[in-house]
Amino acid sequence: MAHVETGLSVLKTSRAIATSAFLAAACSFAATANTQEHFSGKQIRVLVPAGSGASGYGLYGQLAASHLGRAIPGRPTVVISYMPGAAGLVAMNYLYEVAPKDGTVIAVMNQDLVTDQARGRPGIRYDATRYNYIGRVTTNVPVHMVWHTAKAKTLAELKRHEVVTGAVGSGGTHVDLPLAQNALIGTKWKLVMGYPSGNDVRIAMERGEVQAAIAPATLFNSMLKPQLDDGTVSVMVQYADFRHHALQNVPSVVEAADDTEAKDVLRFLVSLATLGRSYAAPPGLPAEVIGILRKAFHVMVADPAFLAEADKLGADVVPLDGEGLFAHVKSVIATPPAIIKRANEVVAQK
Question: Which of 84, 148, 238, 252 has the fewest CB atoms within 10 Å around its CB?
Answer without folding.
Answer: 148
